[in-house]
Amino acid sequence: MGTCLYLGAVILAVFIAAGAEPDIKVVCARDSVKVKWRVSSHFVPYAARLFLGSCMPSKWQLLASGDGEAFFDYKFSECKFTKQIKGKNVVYKNELSFRPQAKGRPVVFKQPIECVYKRPEGWIPPFLNPGSGVSEGQSNLVFHMALLNEQLTGVAKTNVIPLGSFMPIWAAVEQKSHQPLLLLMDECVAATTPKLHPGSHVHQIVGNHGCLFESKRGSAVFLPRYHSSAIILYIQAFNFGLGDEVYIHCNLVVWDDGALGQSRKACHVKEHGSWELLDDPSQSSVCSCCDSVCSSKARRSVDEPHTSSYNTVLGPLVIKDQSGLISNATTVGSLPGGSL
User: Fold this and answer.
1) Phi (first) and psi of residue 217, to 5 degrees
2) Share of residues in the chain with pLDDT > 90 (%)
């Protein structure tokens, strides 16, 4: 512990004395990144504690001055890079860190690393691509999605949402004669168009098979369920398409049993900063892939539970600054029977 405190004090002293940003150079390639991180002689004995995400330096060089240079050369599929869609860009994110002690102990220094690329021509979210093989409305199931009021007792009476306020998005499937069904939001994006096309401006909310990415950027969670066949996404109105019509596009998926795994889950980041599984926090390890790539492979067998999926759209919603609310509000979505 004494060593950790000493190193922490040394790092702070070094950066304060330098009076500038750390000496880090980043080169983004087509599907990888190269990073050169020059550190002072204080850190040379601890080169093995420098990380890019989960990766150690791929090369280390000791300079004549006594300083050192750590080189990282990795693909985005490695080191737990996260991939996000932001408007017309694809963003890969990670961070450099100095971790004097084993994982789980505090990071003394970290620096975000980001590579931004133009979204490929013709790209639309895979779950809305007709070529992806997703079928809609299988087994005659009836799906619903709606914006709820603040009390969560019914459909909101307005589609205008002040920036920064919460908007509860409810989704459900009518079970009818089916045995209990588990409903999940597999993928969700916000867009400025009711139909997605290659030029659509989008903001990713849920991805990677049920990972609530918005919970890493702000105060968003999946609320505790009142029934397995319904789910409520409690999300803060974000700065996207302000003043224009915004539509929430989701791929809703149901299983006829409660089996959970990397490809079927609802995960969000809680107050402690780690991913948690909505339906069983004790199994939160299935959420660990949310910071990398979650497998969609399913073992085929005669006992495999029946799966159905449906692409649905909620909107239009209008996100406004409180100083610019409009009055031509409309009711959004519908609830079967008029209540939860």
Assistant:
1) -100, -20
2) 28
pLDDT value at 252 more than 80:
yes
d(CA 123, CA 145): 25
Answer with the residue of higher pLDDT: 5 or 54.
54
Q: Residue 282: what residue type?
A: S
For strands 160-162 and 307-320, give the pairing.
parallel
Q: Please, are residues 330 and 216 in contact by the beta-carbon 8 Å criterion?
A: no
CB 331 within 8 A of CB 157: yes
